Each structure stands twice: as structure tokens, then as C-alpha cells.
Amino acid sequence: MDDLRLNVSLLRRRVPNLTSAARQVGLRPATVSNLCTGKIPVARAEVRTLVALAALADCSLDELIIRGEKIDMIETKIKTLDLFAPLAKGGTVGLVARPGMGQLVVLSELLYRLKNEAYKTILLMPEGEHQGISDLVENVEIITKNIDETYERIASINGDQDILFVANRTHVITGDIQQLQEKLESIGIHSVTTFLVDLTGDVVDEDLPYGPLETLWHFDADLAARHRFPAVNPLNSTSSVLEGAHIDQEHFTVQQKALKILRRYRELRALVNVRGLERIPASELQTYIRGERLEAYLTQPFYVAEPFTKKIGESVNLQDTLKDVQEILNGAVDSKDISELEYIGKI
Fold first, then answer.
1. Each residue of 209-234: pLDDT tens digit?
2. Which of 42, 190, 209, 279 is the most core-located residue (most Cβ within 10 A)?
3. Sequence-separated (6 or more) residues with CB below 8 Å from residue 283
4. Is residue 347 part of a domain?
């Protein structure tokens, strides 16, 4: 049962505006989103939910639920992304953020890193002036002006070439992105990983702003305000790569333990802000200390930010991240000062 998953590409084609469609038939958009990304396994979904989704997509349950092939992960060597919400190769990634939370910096960093690993990078240029777009432009090879030009440029690239494609949410609302993906699939191109951004920040207030996604990165105002970058919230971000059949046991175990610590740490931190550290129960102090150090460790210097931060960019492979996080969870760095863990690579 672990390798069962929703046919996200079919849902994306048949029900572009899934948020309102789900509400109209009595489904919670958050539940649908979690099923699409794998945060809720298909085997744990209510039958009525699956039946309602099949009805929306005008398909059978056999078409909606597929036995998934292996979903490959693109290792970014960005600690918090690889650990909590891995990038699904060939999937669609949604970035949920308000302006100023650093989403375009993260995207620029990814394009920079993966361009150097032979990925073709394409940006569908958004209309108007937007802060941070110039950083994206510096790290893409191909800039297009409309969906038709985008299709032609991607279709002309060698079919085996891995492609990263970035587009603004306006093209999701019009249905252009769904049509582009369908046209590319019809000619046998499945190697395009699509990043969807919202430059207005409106997506923060919606449950399913981009439709079905393979990967969701939810940026966090509190992390950004405290200069904990990348400000991606591990508790609200997820990926279909995390489904049981696509992730090894070590990764899954460490990730789940880390989420548990961070979830409780955030609750304790709210108490500390009001009452002070001395009011935390002694039994919870260890959780607070380790959560604080784990959050600090998940910050990371970026190559594209070197001119501004004066810190050398760092890459950390997944195995080193897992090893370091396990050490933090085991208490090996309890005595380290927080400053020793902020904006480093591996421990």
C-alpha cells in the first residue's frame, strides 16, 4: 500500500481550480493538498474523499489512484529543503510566501546550484517590476515572454536534458501552466521541474493556491523576522518524495524526530517570550535547548548572497545533514553556543 499515490498530473489537468472545487463538494482544501503531496498517505484517506476527487476529475478510482513509480529527489544540498521537503524531480513546486520572506533568494540559489550541475534553466518573465527578479535573471539561461515561446524553447531542447522552469502564479490562474504541461507530456517530455511563485503574497491566505503539487515550500514570517534564512517552515512544507516508497528509512526517521522537536520547541518558545526561560518545566528544557540549536543549524549561507552577507556559500549533502541533525537530537551539541551553529555548513 505504501506505493499508492494520487494521479496528481491528471488532477492538475482536469481540475485546475481545485481549491474552490474541493470546497463545493465538502472537502477541506488542506486535506486535498496533503494527499497530493503525500503528507497524508492515500491508504489513510477516507473513501468518500477519494470518491469525491474522482468525481471532480471525471475519472475512475483506478485512474485517480496509481501505483507510483519511484519519485526521484533532486538533492539541492540546502539542509532544510532536502531534509523536510525534498525537491521532486519532474514535479511541480509551489512557493508560498509574502514579499520579503526570501522566496526569490531561495529560488535564485537553486537555479545557481543546479545550473552548475547541467540543468537547463528557464524563466517565463513576469509582467511589471518586482524586487529580486534581477537575481533570477542572472541565474537563468533562457528567458521567455509567453507560454507559446516557452513551449517552443523547451520542445527544442534535447529530450534527455533536465530542465528547471520558473513561472508566476498569474499563468496558473489562466490555466496556461496546465496546458503547457499537458502539451509537453503529449510529446514525451517529462524532465521539466516547474517552480511556481506568487509575487503578490496572496497565496499565503489560500489553502491550495497552485492546484495539486509534488512539493510545497511554505515560508515563515517569524523565521524571516528573526533572520533565520532560508525561512522555510519545516512544519508546513512537504513533498511527495516523503511517501514511504520513495525515501529511505534513515531519512524518514530523522525527519520525523526533527519535526517533533521543532513543533514542541515552537510552542515552548511562545511561552518563553511571555514568561521567560525560567518558567519552562525542567522536563521540557532539553527539548527547548535542542529545538533552538536545530533551528540555528538549519540556517545556511547562500552563494548568491555572498556579496551582501560576506559569508562563503555552503553546500551540505543529505547524508551529512542527517548525521548532524541526529547529533543535535541526541544532545551532542547541547553545550554549544547558538552562534556556533548559525549560518554554517555541516557541523
1. 898 899 999 999 999 999 999 999 99
2. 209
3. none
4. no
